[in-house]
Amino acid sequence: xxxTFDDQTRSRNEHSAQLETQGNVIxxxxxxxxxxxxxxxxxxxxxxxxxxxRIRGMFICSDCQNELLSAEQDTPEYQEFLFLIHSLxx
Length: 90
Fold this sequence. Notes:
This protein is mostly helical. It is built from 3 helices and 2 strands, in the order H-E-E-H-H.
């Protein structure tokens, strides 16, 4: 069964509302624009592309970058970051 235009619009609006409740930066003035999503935390950064960096097409937000830089080597968090970087590079 094909969706009607109203069904598609309603579905988009529900999806946007769901993203807003998850803390992502999407509102009426930003709708239709493309924002990066962090590969690690799956969040949209406040300043878009200027709030992080890309590795091989994957975006890492500045919050995750700062966590990576401050992580101690013997912690599980550091091992998670190593696995993440390894999966991006190889």
